[in-house]
Prior knowledge:
The chain is α/β, with parallel strands linked by helices and about 325 residues long. The chain is about 45% helix and about 10% strand. The strands form two sheets. The chain has a six-stranded parallel β-sheet, with helices on both faces. Strands 1-4 form a two-stranded antiparallel ribbon. It is globular and about 55 Å long.
Amino acid sequence: xxxxxxxxxxxxxxxxxxxxxxxxxxxxxxxxxxxxxxxxxxxxxxxxxxxxxxxxxxxxxxxxxxxxxxxxxxxxxxxxxxxxxxxxxxxxxxxxxxxxxxxxxxxxxxxxxxxxxxxxxxxxxxxxxxxxxxxxxxxxxxxxxxxxxxxxxxxxxxxxxxxxxxxxxxxxxxxxxxxxxxxxxxxxxxxxxxxxxxxxxxxxxxxxxxxxxxxxxxxxxxxxxxxxxxxxxxxxxxxxxxxxxxxxxxxxxxxxxxxxxxxxxxxxxxxxxxxxxxxxxxxxxxxxxxxxxxxxxxxxxxxxxxxxxxxxxxxxxxxxxx
Length: 322
């Protein structure tokens, strides 16, 4: 009879993050307005700005799913400002997005050097990150919080541990009343390597976040906007399932605007494509740009580096808002 074996996580060794070399730091985050922001131009960006301004004027929902790299590019302050100005009404990410944001808030830095850390098994084994995040998630699970809520409440309850919380995206979202949800795949995040991990708590809190996200997708109605910024798998898949739920419940979401931000050249991204082309397997092309607007609406691709596209989007919107 098959009898699967498990590993003893209590034997895992962790290390303090104090003194760790970080590739991304609070002191090199980009600040809106402090440098030339409008570096990127495209007709797709022009149309997206028009759609976002229209949504903003009419009080429509604007949902946004980001990959963790957006935080690693030093763009946290842009996300915070876009929420403050009402241009993001729900922000979502994967588990890695929560970790980089959390580390910046307590440590002032994130993103270790993986190629050397993986050689001795120290990669991801940072005591404070794993212990505090897992503690926050487990406490939140007991109170029926979502994953994002759990982290925000933990920061609120332990301000002395988070000297950089003013630049913490999930905490500032919490302060603004903007839902910030995290959609976790088991085994993908460094806090899943730690002795303190509780997979039931992870599943419960991230599952609740999916329900929050679905509610926000329902709120898109027929003229809302959804942005997918740098999430090539999780964001594309989560959005499509949430959109299916909205339509299953009879909510009109046929004339939405969707926009995917990435650096992969797709050519004519609206043309049919055969399965022998690699672009066919790029999930955002189908799940963000094409399928959601098959009955109406607009699907856009903003092809460029996040360091240029996000500041440009922010600057273009602020020109009109101010």
